[in-house]
């Protein structure tokens, strides 16, 4: 899915990977990722959302990382790649502490409603 998504990003300076099952990630979180994406030292930054000690998608990856991301295989996802680049990773605080709660089933949805 990463490779497929990146085939549509060749004309962009960066791309943000967002998971569809995280209802507490807000559009303002994405806006903040985009705002932090430009590296102050000229090196493109990887910018990830963080809530408490948890971080991950959504994550902004600059164009400089597209080729490496396209070579990922199997369970070696984008977060593992980002972990290999930690000197370039910056975090933005999620607006909702539940940002990484995901909804994969009806029971997950019921729990979130309560």
Describe this structure in words.
This protein has a 4-stranded mixed β-sheet. The longest helix is centred in the N-terminal third of the chain and has 10 residues, at about 25-35. It is about 30% helix and about 20% strand. It is α+β, with helices and mostly antiparallel strands.
For the structure shown, list the relevant keywords.
114 residues; alpha+beta; four-stranded mixed β-sheet; 5 helices; 30% helix; globular
Number of helices: 5
- The share of residues in helices is 25-40%
Number of strands: 4
Strand content: 15-25%
Give me the secondary-structure category.
alpha+beta
Shape: globular
Main β sheet profile: 4 strands, mixed
Could you tell me the radius of gyration in angstroms?
A: 15 Å
Main-sheet strand order equals 1-3-2-4
Tell me the span between the first and last alpha carbons: 32 Å
Chain-averaged pLDDT: 88
Order of helices and strands: HEHEEHHEH
Oligomer: single chain
Q: Please mark out the parts with pLDDT under 50 across 5 or more consecutive residues, or reply none.
A: none
Put the structure in a nutshell.
The chain is an alpha+beta fold and 114 residues long. The protein has five helices and four strands, in the order αβαββααβα.
What is the fold's blueprint, element by element?
Layout: H1 2-6, E1 14-17, H2 27-36, E2 46-51, E3 54-62, H3 66-70, H4 78-83, E4 89-93, H5 106-113
Parallel strand pairs: 2-4
Antiparallel strand pairs: 1-3, 2-3
């Amino acid at each position: 899915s990463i490779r497929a998504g990146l085939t549509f990003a060749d004309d962009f300076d960066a791309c943000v990977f967002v998971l569809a099952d995280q209802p507490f990630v807000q559009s303002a979180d994405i806006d903040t990722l985009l705002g932090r994406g430009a590296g102050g030292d000229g090196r493109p930054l990887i910018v990830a959302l963080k809530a408490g000690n948890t971080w991950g998608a959504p994550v902004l990856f600059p164009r400089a990382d597209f080729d490496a991301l396209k070579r990922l295989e199997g369970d070696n996802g984008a977060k593992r790649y980002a972990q290999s680049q930690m000197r370039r990773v910056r975090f933005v605080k999620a607006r909702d502490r539940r940002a990484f709660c995901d909804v994969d089933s009806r029971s997950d949805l019921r729990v979130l409603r309560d």
